[in-house]
User: Which sequence fits this backbone?
Protein backbone atom coordinates (compact mmCIF):
# COMPACT_ATOMS: atom_id res chain seq x y z
CA UNK A 1 0.00 0.00 0.00
CA UNK A 2 1.45 3.38 -1.00
CA UNK A 3 2.33 5.83 1.76
CA UNK A 4 0.24 8.99 1.69
CA UNK A 5 2.13 12.26 1.17
CA UNK A 6 1.95 14.85 3.93
CA UNK A 7 -0.25 17.82 3.09
CA UNK A 8 1.51 20.93 1.83
CA UNK A 9 5.04 21.15 0.57
CA UNK A 10 8.10 20.37 2.59
CA UNK A 11 11.29 22.38 2.08
CA UNK A 12 14.34 20.16 2.38
CA UNK A 13 17.29 22.03 3.84
CA UNK A 14 20.69 20.95 5.06
CA UNK A 15 21.34 20.85 8.78
CA UNK A 16 23.56 23.93 8.62
CA UNK A 17 20.98 26.06 6.80
CA UNK A 18 19.15 28.61 8.91
CA UNK A 19 15.59 29.67 8.19
CA UNK A 20 13.53 32.47 9.72
CA UNK A 21 9.90 32.92 8.67
CA UNK A 22 6.84 35.06 9.16
CA UNK A 23 6.81 37.72 11.87
CA UNK A 24 10.28 36.82 13.05
CA UNK A 25 11.72 37.38 9.57
CA UNK A 26 9.98 40.73 9.18
CA UNK A 27 10.96 41.87 12.65
CA UNK A 28 14.60 40.93 12.06
CA UNK A 29 14.74 42.75 8.72
CA UNK A 30 12.96 45.84 9.99
CA UNK A 31 15.30 46.04 12.98
CA UNK A 32 18.33 45.83 10.69
CA UNK A 33 16.95 48.47 8.33
CA UNK A 34 16.10 50.86 11.14
CA UNK A 35 19.56 50.41 12.63
CA UNK A 36 21.11 51.69 9.39
CA UNK A 37 18.82 54.71 9.41
CA UNK A 38 19.70 55.47 13.03
CA UNK A 39 23.43 55.15 12.24
CA UNK A 40 23.40 58.23 10.02
CA UNK A 41 20.51 60.15 11.57
CA UNK A 42 22.70 62.41 13.72
CA UNK A 43 24.60 63.62 10.65
CA UNK A 44 21.60 65.31 9.00
CA UNK A 45 21.42 69.06 8.59
CA UNK A 46 23.61 72.07 9.32
CA UNK A 47 24.03 71.00 12.94
CA UNK A 48 24.68 67.35 12.12
CA UNK A 49 27.58 65.54 13.77
CA UNK A 50 30.47 63.70 12.13
CA UNK A 51 31.40 60.02 12.25
CA UNK A 52 34.92 58.71 12.67
CA UNK A 53 35.49 55.62 10.53
CA UNK A 54 38.51 53.45 11.24
CA UNK A 55 39.30 50.59 8.87
CA UNK A 56 41.23 47.40 9.57
CA UNK A 57 44.50 49.12 8.63
CA UNK A 58 43.91 51.92 11.11
CA UNK A 59 43.18 54.53 8.45
CA UNK A 60 40.78 57.18 9.72
CA UNK A 61 38.03 59.02 7.83
CA UNK A 62 36.01 61.76 9.54
CA UNK A 63 32.84 62.60 7.62
CA UNK A 64 29.11 63.20 7.80
CA UNK A 65 28.50 62.14 4.21
CA UNK A 66 25.85 59.42 4.31
CA UNK A 67 27.04 57.22 1.46
CA UNK A 68 30.66 57.43 2.65
CA UNK A 69 29.68 56.32 6.15
CA UNK A 70 27.56 53.42 4.96
CA UNK A 71 30.01 52.23 2.31
CA UNK A 72 32.77 51.96 4.90
CA UNK A 73 30.70 50.17 7.54
CA UNK A 74 31.26 46.42 7.85
CA UNK A 75 27.64 45.35 7.36
CA UNK A 76 26.69 41.69 7.61
CA UNK A 77 22.92 41.62 7.15
CA UNK A 78 21.01 41.40 3.83
CA UNK A 79 18.29 43.87 4.85
CA UNK A 80 20.92 46.33 6.04
CA UNK A 81 22.71 45.91 2.70
CA UNK A 82 19.47 46.90 0.97
CA UNK A 83 19.47 50.14 2.95
CA UNK A 84 23.04 50.82 1.88
CA UNK A 85 21.89 50.35 -1.72
CA UNK A 86 19.37 53.14 -1.13
CA UNK A 87 22.24 55.53 -0.39
CA UNK A 88 24.32 54.27 -3.30
CA UNK A 89 21.39 54.63 -5.70
CA UNK A 90 20.69 58.14 -4.45
CA UNK A 91 24.36 59.05 -4.89
CA UNK A 92 24.51 57.54 -8.36
CA UNK A 93 21.33 59.17 -9.64
CA UNK A 94 21.48 62.70 -8.22
CA UNK A 95 24.67 62.91 -6.16
CA UNK A 96 23.08 64.23 -2.94
CA UNK A 97 20.36 63.48 -0.40
CA UNK A 98 21.77 60.11 0.66
CA UNK A 99 21.27 60.68 4.39
CA UNK A 100 17.69 61.85 3.89
CA UNK A 101 16.87 58.78 1.81
CA UNK A 102 18.24 56.34 4.38
CA UNK A 103 16.61 58.10 7.36
CA UNK A 104 13.26 58.16 5.57
CA UNK A 105 13.51 54.46 4.70
CA UNK A 106 14.16 53.70 8.36
CA UNK A 107 11.16 55.79 9.42
CA UNK A 108 8.90 54.03 6.91
CA UNK A 109 9.99 50.68 8.37
CA UNK A 110 9.29 51.92 11.90
CA UNK A 111 5.77 53.02 10.95
CA UNK A 112 5.20 49.73 9.14
CA UNK A 113 6.22 47.80 12.25
CA UNK A 114 3.51 49.60 14.22
CA UNK A 115 0.93 48.67 11.58
CA UNK A 116 2.07 45.04 11.52
CA UNK A 117 1.44 44.85 15.27
CA UNK A 118 -2.12 45.95 14.50
CA UNK A 119 -2.46 42.98 12.10
CA UNK A 120 -2.33 45.13 8.98
CA UNK A 121 -1.07 42.88 6.18
CA UNK A 122 2.32 43.76 4.62
CA UNK A 123 0.74 43.85 1.15
CA UNK A 124 -1.77 46.43 2.34
CA UNK A 125 1.02 48.55 3.80
CA UNK A 126 3.02 48.26 0.60
CA UNK A 127 0.04 49.32 -1.51
CA UNK A 128 -0.64 52.30 0.75
CA UNK A 129 3.00 53.35 0.65
CA UNK A 130 3.07 53.22 -3.14
CA UNK A 131 -0.08 55.32 -3.41
CA UNK A 132 1.36 57.84 -0.98
CA UNK A 133 4.57 58.03 -3.01
CA UNK A 134 2.64 58.74 -6.17
CA UNK A 135 0.72 61.50 -4.42
CA UNK A 136 3.97 62.88 -2.99
CA UNK A 137 5.39 63.24 -6.50
CA UNK A 138 2.38 65.30 -7.56
CA UNK A 139 2.65 67.60 -4.54
CA UNK A 140 6.38 68.12 -5.04
CA UNK A 141 5.81 69.23 -8.63
CA UNK A 142 3.15 71.65 -7.39
CA UNK A 143 5.31 73.32 -4.73
CA UNK A 144 8.53 73.50 -6.78
CA UNK A 145 9.89 76.79 -8.10
CA UNK A 146 11.50 77.25 -11.50
CA UNK A 147 15.19 77.94 -11.96
CA UNK A 148 17.44 78.15 -15.02
CA UNK A 149 21.12 78.26 -15.86
CA UNK A 150 21.16 82.06 -15.82
CA UNK A 151 19.89 82.24 -12.23
CA UNK A 152 23.39 82.14 -10.77
CA UNK A 153 22.28 83.39 -7.36
CA UNK A 154 19.86 80.49 -6.82
CA UNK A 155 22.35 77.97 -8.16
CA UNK A 156 24.98 79.22 -5.73
CA UNK A 157 22.48 78.90 -2.90
CA UNK A 158 21.86 75.29 -3.91
CA UNK A 159 25.59 74.60 -3.70
CA UNK A 160 25.82 76.36 -0.34
CA UNK A 161 22.89 74.34 1.02
CA UNK A 162 24.68 71.09 0.16
CA UNK A 163 27.86 72.27 1.89
CA UNK A 164 26.12 73.49 5.04
CA UNK A 165 27.09 71.43 8.06
CA UNK A 166 30.19 70.01 6.39
CA UNK A 167 33.88 70.87 6.57
CA UNK A 168 33.43 73.12 3.54
CA UNK A 169 30.90 75.35 5.32
CA UNK A 170 33.34 78.10 6.35
CA UNK A 171 34.27 78.72 2.71
CA UNK A 172 30.94 77.72 1.18
CA UNK A 173 30.31 81.05 -0.56
CA UNK A 174 33.61 80.90 -2.43
CA UNK A 175 33.29 77.19 -3.14
CA UNK A 176 29.71 77.69 -4.35
CA UNK A 177 30.92 80.24 -6.92
CA UNK A 178 33.55 77.74 -8.09
CA UNK A 179 30.98 74.94 -8.32
CA UNK A 180 28.45 77.00 -10.26
CA UNK A 181 31.16 78.35 -12.52
CA UNK A 182 32.38 74.83 -13.26
CA UNK A 183 28.92 73.52 -14.12
CA UNK A 184 27.61 76.48 -16.10
CA UNK A 185 30.80 76.53 -18.18
CA UNK A 186 30.14 73.00 -19.45
CA UNK A 187 26.38 73.42 -19.92
CA UNK A 188 25.24 73.21 -23.53
CA UNK A 189 22.18 72.31 -25.56
CA UNK A 190 22.97 68.61 -25.28
CA UNK A 191 23.00 68.72 -21.48
CA UNK A 192 25.72 68.62 -18.85
CA UNK A 193 28.35 65.89 -18.82
CA UNK A 194 30.14 65.41 -15.52
CA UNK A 195 33.05 64.02 -17.53
CA UNK A 196 33.74 67.63 -18.50
CA UNK A 197 34.31 68.58 -14.86
CA UNK A 198 37.42 67.26 -13.13
CA UNK A 199 38.06 67.61 -9.40
CA UNK A 200 41.63 67.58 -8.09
CA UNK A 201 42.82 67.83 -4.49
CA UNK A 202 45.89 69.55 -3.07
CA UNK A 203 46.49 69.56 0.70
CA UNK A 204 48.78 72.03 2.38
CA UNK A 205 46.97 75.34 1.85
CA UNK A 206 43.69 76.74 3.27
CA UNK A 207 40.40 75.88 1.63
CA UNK A 208 40.08 79.52 0.52
CA UNK A 209 42.93 78.84 -1.91
CA UNK A 210 40.68 76.49 -3.91
CA UNK A 211 40.26 77.58 -7.51
CA UNK A 212 38.58 76.92 -10.83
CA UNK A 213 40.53 76.36 -14.03
CA UNK A 214 38.59 76.45 -17.27
CA UNK A 215 40.51 73.71 -18.99
CA UNK A 216 42.07 70.26 -18.61
CA UNK A 217 44.69 69.59 -15.97
CA UNK A 218 47.07 66.65 -16.42
CA UNK A 219 49.83 65.59 -14.07
CA UNK A 220 53.28 66.15 -15.54
CA UNK A 221 55.99 68.70 -16.25
CA UNK A 222 58.27 69.74 -19.12
CA UNK A 223 60.99 67.15 -19.74
CA UNK A 224 63.78 69.67 -20.29
CA UNK A 225 64.59 72.97 -18.65
CA UNK A 226 64.93 74.51 -22.10
CA UNK A 227 61.30 73.76 -22.95
CA UNK A 228 58.69 76.53 -22.69
CA UNK A 229 56.46 76.47 -19.61
CA UNK A 230 53.70 78.33 -21.45
CA UNK A 231 52.56 77.91 -25.05
CA UNK A 232 49.98 80.15 -26.72
CA UNK A 233 48.05 79.00 -29.79
CA UNK A 234 49.03 75.44 -28.97
CA UNK A 235 48.90 72.67 -31.55
CA UNK A 236 48.74 69.41 -29.65
CA UNK A 237 49.92 65.92 -30.58
CA UNK A 238 48.74 62.95 -28.51
CA UNK A 239 51.00 59.90 -28.69
CA UNK A 240 49.80 56.52 -27.47
CA UNK A 241 53.44 55.59 -27.35
CA UNK A 242 56.79 57.10 -26.37
CA UNK A 243 59.93 58.19 -28.21
CA UNK A 244 62.50 55.65 -27.14
CA UNK A 245 65.45 53.72 -28.54
CA UNK A 246 64.35 51.01 -30.93
CA UNK A 247 64.18 47.58 -29.31
CA UNK A 248 65.59 44.57 -31.25
CA UNK A 249 62.84 42.39 -32.69
CA UNK A 250 64.55 39.34 -31.19
CA UNK A 251 66.59 38.80 -28.06
CA UNK A 252 70.26 39.12 -29.00
CA UNK A 253 73.60 40.09 -27.52
CA UNK A 254 75.46 42.67 -29.60
CA UNK A 255 79.23 42.55 -29.30
CA UNK A 256 81.22 45.56 -30.55
CA UNK A 257 85.03 45.44 -30.42
CA UNK A 258 85.74 48.72 -32.23
CA UNK A 259 84.93 51.94 -30.24
CA UNK A 260 84.31 53.71 -33.52
CA UNK A 261 81.68 51.13 -34.42
CA UNK A 262 80.03 51.60 -31.01
CA UNK A 263 79.89 55.36 -31.54
CA UNK A 264 78.44 54.79 -34.98
CA UNK A 265 75.75 52.60 -33.46
CA UNK A 266 74.89 55.27 -30.89
CA UNK A 267 74.83 57.96 -33.53
CA UNK A 268 72.41 55.90 -35.58
CA UNK A 269 70.09 55.49 -32.57
CA UNK A 270 70.18 59.22 -31.84
CA UNK A 271 69.59 60.01 -35.51
CA UNK A 272 66.49 57.78 -35.42
CA UNK A 273 65.17 59.64 -32.35
CA UNK A 274 65.85 63.03 -33.91
CA UNK A 275 64.17 61.94 -37.10
CA UNK A 276 61.01 61.11 -35.19
CA UNK A 277 61.15 64.45 -33.36
CA UNK A 278 61.65 66.26 -36.68
CA UNK A 279 58.61 64.49 -38.09
CA UNK A 280 56.49 65.70 -35.17
CA UNK A 281 57.84 69.24 -35.46
CA UNK A 282 57.20 69.27 -39.21
CA UNK A 283 53.49 68.61 -38.60
CA UNK A 284 53.34 71.93 -36.76
CA UNK A 285 52.99 70.49 -33.25
CA UNK A 286 54.33 72.66 -30.43
CA UNK A 287 52.94 70.57 -27.54
CA UNK A 288 53.38 66.81 -27.24
CA UNK A 289 51.73 64.50 -24.72
CA UNK A 290 53.07 60.93 -24.70
CA UNK A 291 51.82 57.80 -22.95
CA UNK A 292 55.34 56.37 -22.49
CA UNK A 293 58.91 57.58 -21.97
CA UNK A 294 60.64 60.17 -24.13
CA UNK A 295 64.40 59.70 -24.34
CA UNK A 296 66.67 62.55 -23.16
CA UNK A 297 68.03 63.03 -26.68
CA UNK A 298 64.51 63.49 -28.02
CA UNK A 299 63.63 65.83 -25.15
CA UNK A 300 66.66 67.97 -25.95
CA UNK A 301 65.66 68.11 -29.59
CA UNK A 302 62.11 69.16 -28.66
CA UNK A 303 63.58 71.90 -26.45
CA UNK A 304 65.70 73.11 -29.37
CA UNK A 305 62.47 73.59 -31.34
CA UNK A 306 60.60 75.27 -28.42
CA UNK A 307 58.21 72.33 -28.15
CA UNK A 308 56.69 71.47 -24.76
CA UNK A 309 56.76 67.69 -24.27
CA UNK A 310 55.26 65.67 -21.38
CA UNK A 311 55.75 61.93 -20.90
CA UNK A 312 54.15 59.04 -18.97
CA UNK A 313 50.60 60.40 -19.00
CA UNK A 314 47.85 58.37 -17.36
CA UNK A 315 45.44 56.77 -19.81
CA UNK A 316 42.51 58.71 -18.30
CA UNK A 317 44.33 62.01 -18.86
CA UNK A 318 45.12 61.14 -22.48
CA UNK A 319 41.54 60.07 -23.05
CA UNK A 320 40.21 63.34 -21.66
CA UNK A 321 42.62 65.39 -23.75
CA UNK A 322 41.60 63.45 -26.83
CA UNK A 323 37.92 63.99 -26.13
CA UNK A 324 37.99 67.71 -25.39
CA UNK A 325 40.44 68.64 -28.14
CA UNK A 326 38.94 66.22 -30.69
CA UNK A 327 42.46 64.88 -31.21
CA UNK A 328 43.17 61.25 -32.15
CA UNK A 329 45.72 59.29 -30.14
CA UNK A 330 48.27 58.04 -32.67
CA UNK A 331 50.01 54.76 -31.96
CA UNK A 332 53.22 55.46 -33.90
CA UNK A 333 55.05 58.73 -34.53
CA UNK A 334 55.30 58.03 -38.25
CA UNK A 335 51.53 58.07 -38.73
CA UNK A 336 51.08 61.53 -37.14
CA UNK A 337 49.93 64.19 -39.61
CA UNK A 338 48.97 67.84 -39.40
CA UNK A 339 45.30 66.83 -39.45
CA UNK A 340 45.81 64.86 -36.21
CA UNK A 341 46.73 67.93 -34.16
CA UNK A 342 44.40 69.45 -31.60
CA UNK A 343 44.22 73.11 -30.67
CA UNK A 344 44.17 75.13 -27.45
CA UNK A 345 44.55 78.82 -26.81
CA UNK A 346 46.94 78.24 -23.91
CA UNK A 347 48.99 75.38 -22.46
CA UNK A 348 50.96 76.20 -19.31
CA UNK A 349 52.71 74.69 -16.32
CA UNK A 350 50.65 74.80 -13.12
CA UNK A 351 52.11 73.93 -9.72
CA UNK A 352 49.53 72.70 -7.20
CA UNK A 353 50.84 71.87 -3.76
CA UNK A 354 53.98 69.84 -4.32
CA UNK A 355 52.92 68.51 -7.71
CA UNK A 356 53.39 69.88 -11.21
CA UNK A 357 50.58 69.85 -13.74
CA UNK A 358 50.10 71.02 -17.29
CA UNK A 359 46.94 73.00 -17.89
CA UNK A 360 45.29 72.96 -21.33
CA UNK A 361 42.93 75.95 -21.57
CA UNK A 362 40.85 77.90 -24.08
CA UNK A 363 39.91 74.80 -26.05
CA UNK A 364 37.79 75.70 -29.12
CA UNK A 365 34.30 74.19 -29.29
CA UNK A 366 34.82 72.28 -26.04
CA UNK A 367 34.08 73.62 -22.56
CA UNK A 368 35.92 71.76 -19.81
CA UNK A 369 36.68 72.76 -16.24
CA UNK A 370 38.91 71.60 -13.41
CA UNK A 371 38.18 72.33 -9.76
CA UNK A 372 41.21 72.46 -7.46
CA UNK A 373 40.16 71.67 -3.88
CA UNK A 374 42.60 72.71 -1.17
CA UNK A 375 42.74 72.20 2.58
CA UNK A 376 45.14 72.04 5.47
CA UNK A 377 45.41 68.24 5.65
CA UNK A 378 44.57 65.31 3.42
CA UNK A 379 41.64 64.35 5.66
CA UNK A 380 40.17 67.85 5.45
CA UNK A 381 40.70 67.98 1.68
CA UNK A 382 38.97 64.62 1.22
CA UNK A 383 35.89 65.76 3.15
CA UNK A 384 35.74 69.08 1.29
CA UNK A 385 36.08 67.21 -1.98
CA UNK A 386 33.04 65.09 -1.10
CA UNK A 387 31.04 68.24 -0.37
CA UNK A 388 32.16 69.87 -3.63
CA UNK A 389 31.32 66.79 -5.70
CA UNK A 390 27.86 66.59 -4.08
CA UNK A 391 27.35 70.28 -4.83
CA UNK A 392 28.39 69.83 -8.46
CA UNK A 393 25.80 67.10 -8.91
CA UNK A 394 23.11 69.10 -7.12
CA UNK A 395 23.65 72.17 -9.31
CA UNK A 396 23.68 69.96 -12.39
CA UNK A 397 20.33 68.30 -11.64
CA UNK A 398 18.81 71.67 -10.71
CA UNK A 399 19.73 73.09 -14.12
CA UNK A 400 18.51 70.00 -15.96
CA UNK A 401 15.20 69.78 -14.06
CA UNK A 402 14.73 73.56 -13.84
CA UNK A 403 12.92 73.08 -10.51
CA UNK A 404 13.94 73.61 -6.90
CA UNK A 405 12.39 73.24 -3.44
CA UNK A 406 12.91 74.93 -0.12
CA UNK A 407 14.97 73.09 2.46
CA UNK A 408 14.77 72.90 6.24
CA UNK A 409 12.08 70.20 6.23
CA UNK A 410 9.64 72.42 4.33
CA UNK A 411 8.88 69.88 1.56
CA UNK A 412 8.39 67.00 4.01
CA UNK A 413 6.02 69.05 6.18
CA UNK A 414 3.96 70.09 3.16
CA UNK A 415 3.91 66.51 1.87
CA UNK A 416 2.84 65.10 5.23
CA UNK A 417 -0.14 67.44 5.40
CA UNK A 418 -1.16 66.82 1.79
CA UNK A 419 -0.85 63.04 2.13
CA UNK A 420 -2.98 63.00 5.31
CA UNK A 421 -5.71 64.82 3.37
CA UNK A 422 -5.29 62.31 0.56
CA UNK A 423 -5.60 59.39 3.00
CA UNK A 424 -9.14 60.47 3.91
CA UNK A 425 -10.19 59.95 0.30
CA UNK A 426 -8.82 56.41 0.12
CA UNK A 427 -10.45 54.73 3.07
CA UNK A 428 -10.05 51.17 4.27
CA UNK A 429 -6.87 49.79 5.79
CA UNK A 430 -4.77 51.40 3.09
CA UNK A 431 -5.73 54.72 4.66
CA UNK A 432 -3.83 53.71 7.78
CA UNK A 433 -0.72 52.94 5.72
CA UNK A 434 -0.95 56.29 3.91
CA UNK A 435 -1.30 58.15 7.21
CA UNK A 436 1.70 56.23 8.54
CA UNK A 437 3.62 57.32 5.44
CA UNK A 438 2.83 60.94 6.29
CA UNK A 439 4.09 60.43 9.83
CA UNK A 440 7.31 58.93 8.48
CA UNK A 441 7.97 61.97 6.28
CA UNK A 442 8.09 64.17 9.35
CA UNK A 443 11.23 62.35 10.49
CA UNK A 444 13.21 64.89 8.45
CA UNK A 445 12.12 68.09 10.26
CA UNK A 446 12.16 66.20 13.58
CA UNK A 447 15.75 65.12 13.02
CA UNK A 448 16.83 68.60 11.93
CA UNK A 449 15.39 69.97 15.18
CA UNK A 450 16.97 67.25 17.34
CA UNK A 451 20.41 67.72 15.77
CA UNK A 452 20.16 71.46 16.40
CA UNK A 453 19.36 70.92 20.09
CA UNK A 454 15.74 72.06 19.65
CA UNK A 455 12.51 70.51 20.86
CA UNK A 456 11.29 68.43 17.88
CA UNK A 457 7.65 68.53 18.99
CA UNK A 458 7.56 72.31 19.33
CA UNK A 459 9.31 72.74 16.00
CA UNK A 460 6.95 70.35 14.25
CA UNK A 461 3.86 72.00 15.72
CA UNK A 462 4.96 75.41 14.48
CA UNK A 463 5.87 74.00 11.05
CA UNK A 464 2.43 72.44 10.72
CA UNK A 465 0.73 75.66 11.76
CA UNK A 466 2.67 77.73 9.23
CA UNK A 467 1.99 75.28 6.40
CA UNK A 468 -1.66 75.07 7.41
CA UNK A 469 -1.72 78.85 6.96
CA UNK A 470 -0.49 78.50 3.39
CA UNK A 471 3.26 79.07 3.89
CA UNK A 472 4.40 76.15 1.75
CA UNK A 473 8.09 77.08 1.89
CA UNK A 474 8.20 77.40 5.69
CA UNK A 475 11.10 75.40 7.09
CA UNK A 476 13.24 75.14 10.20
CA UNK A 477 16.29 77.37 10.48
CA UNK A 478 18.55 75.12 12.51
CA UNK A 479 20.87 78.03 13.30
CA UNK A 480 18.24 80.14 15.08
CA UNK A 481 15.50 77.60 15.79
CA UNK A 482 12.96 79.79 13.99
CA UNK A 483 10.55 78.72 11.26
CA UNK A 484 11.20 80.90 8.22
CA UNK A 485 10.59 81.06 4.46
CA UNK A 486 13.39 78.89 3.09
CA UNK A 487 13.29 80.47 -0.37
CA UNK A 488 13.88 83.92 1.09
CA UNK A 489 16.59 82.54 3.35
CA UNK A 490 18.26 80.91 0.35
CA UNK A 491 18.13 77.31 1.58
CA UNK A 492 17.06 75.43 -1.54
CA UNK A 493 17.62 72.03 -3.11
CA UNK A 494 16.83 70.51 -6.51
CA UNK A 495 13.48 68.80 -6.95
CA UNK A 496 15.01 65.56 -8.35
CA UNK A 497 17.09 65.10 -5.17
CA UNK A 498 13.98 65.06 -2.97
CA UNK A 499 11.95 63.02 -5.42
CA UNK A 500 14.68 60.40 -5.74
CA UNK A 501 15.14 60.21 -1.95
CA UNK A 502 11.45 59.60 -1.37
CA UNK A 503 11.19 57.09 -4.20
CA UNK A 504 14.29 55.11 -3.22
CA UNK A 505 13.32 55.05 0.46
CA UNK A 506 9.84 53.78 -0.37
CA UNK A 507 11.12 51.05 -2.69
CA UNK A 508 13.55 49.78 -0.06
CA UNK A 509 10.94 49.79 2.70
CA UNK A 510 8.40 47.96 0.56
CA UNK A 511 10.95 45.39 -0.54
CA UNK A 512 11.93 44.63 3.05
CA UNK A 513 8.27 44.43 4.15
CA UNK A 514 7.45 41.87 1.46
CA UNK A 515 10.06 39.41 2.72
CA UNK A 516 8.48 36.73 4.92
CA UNK A 517 11.18 34.07 4.71
CA UNK A 518 14.93 34.37 5.21
CA UNK A 519 16.95 31.30 4.28
CA UNK A 520 20.65 31.46 5.06
CA UNK A 521 22.62 28.85 3.17
CA UNK A 522 25.46 27.03 4.89
CA UNK A 523 29.01 27.98 4.04
Assistant:
Amino acid sequence: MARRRASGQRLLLSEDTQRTSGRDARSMNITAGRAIGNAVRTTLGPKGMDKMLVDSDGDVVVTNDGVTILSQMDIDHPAADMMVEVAETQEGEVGDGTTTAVILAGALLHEAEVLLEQDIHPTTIATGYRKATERAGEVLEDVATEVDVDDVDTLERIAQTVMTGKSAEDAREQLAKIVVGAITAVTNEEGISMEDVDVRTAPGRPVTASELIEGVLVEGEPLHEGMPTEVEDARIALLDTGIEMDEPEIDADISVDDPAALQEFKDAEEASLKERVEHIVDTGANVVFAADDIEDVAAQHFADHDVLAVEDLEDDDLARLARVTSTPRVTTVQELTEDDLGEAGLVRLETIGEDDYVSVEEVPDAAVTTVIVRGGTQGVVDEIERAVVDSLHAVRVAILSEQVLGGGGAPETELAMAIRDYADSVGGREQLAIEAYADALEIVPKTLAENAGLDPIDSLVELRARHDGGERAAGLDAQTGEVIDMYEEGTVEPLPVKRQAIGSATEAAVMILRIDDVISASN
